[in-house]
Amino acid sequence: MTADDLFPNASSPGLSAELLDVTHALRARFPKRPAEIRQPTQNLQDAYAQAQDLSNEFLSQLTLFGTLSGARATPRPNGIKSWARTEEKGNLFGLVPLDILGGKYVFGQLTPLYAAAARVHESFDVLAFQDRFLKPQA
Length: 138
Description:
mainly alpha
């Protein structure tokens, strides 16, 4: 399999060769796509309770990695997805949502964003990778 098989439209987003190398390396290191990942438990209440238990630790890691990568870290409002929204998504898709805990990093440029993407596994367990610059979400 070649990089062209993984990213047939890789030149279209206008990424530099250096950033394409980063995304290719991440795709090779984390070959699963987010759609292939499932929660360890299929019990919605158990997953939600575990997310509540981990929320303070997650916020600390989110903030620390933001500081290390030079990005502004923003947790999900209230720290955790609401139970109503979690239940709604679980019923809609028949799966326990992966994003009960969530946050984001804001970067002003692509180079530091890709540098952080290459290091995020140092602070978080990375199970899958998808570059939304190469393949935007519909």
